[in-house]
Amino acid sequence: MSKREIYRILDAAANRGREALRVVEDAARFLEDDAELTARLKETRHQFAAAQNKFDRRERLDARDVAADVGTCVETEDEYRRTSLADVLAANFARLQEAARSLEEYSKIVAPNAARDWEQIRYAAYSLEKLAFDALARRGSDPFEELAAEFAASVETEPAPEPVETPVEPEPPQPESEPTPAPEPLETPLETVAAPFIFGGSHRPKTDREARRARLETASLCVYVDPARPDGELRDLLRADIDVFQIVVDPNSANAPDAQTERFFKRWRETGSQTRDVESRPLLFLRDYVDWAAALSFDGATVDRGFDWNVARETLGPDALLGATVSTLDEAEAGLRAGELGVLDFLEVGPVFASQTGEPTGTALLRTIVDRVEGEPSIPLFAFGGVDFQNCDEAFDSGFERLAVGSAILNAPDKRAAASRFKCLF
Q1: CATH number for the 3-146 domain, one of 1.25.10, 3.30.160, 1.10.8, 1.20.1260?
Q2: Can you identify the CATH homologous superfamily of domain 193-423?
């Protein structure tokens, strides 16, 4: 058995376990509204990530070979049958426990310092399973069973009889009268006036802040986009596996940001992105132009250092998300407090590595922030600035789980492939 074969097993088991853990966490959070269980599951997810970081990330990724995995072609009928929430929980807790056991055993060969961590995670999974089913029992009914019964009833309902056509006698001719004057036009909504060139006279339906925050919680990859790039590049990016687009316009342009964002939204419509629910589509942020982000119904805006966060929040309104760039520990701690107060929704920390965005802070700042935060931070944290495939491991090793990337994707020959490669790291 080679080292590569061991890492191939570890990689598959780690992916399987994290996926299962996310499924049960979503159930606790969105179906059961159980804050305590959600917190316990999230804590376990972070323990899972910490144990996974003890593996050599490059070895694990180099060993990954999905195309040659014979297990992807083996299916059972039960895999595609879930008739209750209990079924979903049972299946995914089993996946988590089995994955943890496999990780525990095989890590003893190449990363023995992680074996005890996987053992503890496996024991935690047993306890969490009991808590989850206790919560379901307290609920008194299974929401999936109710839904399944509803669908079954709709299928079993007898079809309505076909309507019988009744002959209709022609109406007698009416005397001519003067045409009715057209009604006065209604007052145009503010959102329509704000961006007629983008939305063609109607604005994109807004989603509330809670839905956007839920999408942000699942985001791992943010990409900075120059909307002045060629159309083909924008189309490729919009079709890539990217969670957050942050549009950075050229402030020296005579018509920034209106003409630049118009081009981006045109490509956005062409890819059908605007038709997807907020839970499944990438989020759109505009950097620094907070008033434009509000007027164009962006998902939110990001402001650089020196911008008053309270003013930006007031400008955006209650539904949009607000992020801020921080480069020191004091700024990060102030940003986390603003997150607890509901002013900010996420932070970008950096620039971590050498880039055009300023003097690099290094990964020491990331580690210090993680050490200062007890448990889960109040808002998501993204590491940004010079992040590429060669140095991203350093950001992960510091405890950050989200990346904001620019040139490593924008300047790649195949941008979709570069984005997918980054997503495989999470």
Answers
A1: 1.20.1260
A2: Aldolase class I (3.20.20.70)
Q: 161-214: per-residue pLDDT in tens?
A: 555 555 555 555 555 545 544 434 333 332 333 333 333 333 444 447 888 998
pLDDT digits (tens, 9 = 90+) for 265-320: 777 766 666 656 777 788 999 998 898 888 878 899 999 988 999 999 999 998 99
Q: Which pLDDT value is given to residue 189? A: 32
Distance CA 129, CA 62 (A): 33
Backbone angles phi, psi at 29, to 5 degrees: -80, -45
Give CA–CA dist 22/24, Å, rounded.
Answer: 6
Q: Which of 288, 309, 307, 284 is nearest to 296 (CA)?
A: 284
Neighbours of 267 (CB within 10 A): 20
CA atoms within 13 A on the CB side of 254: 0
Residue count of the chain, please give it. Answer: 426
> And the tokens for 260?
């630049």
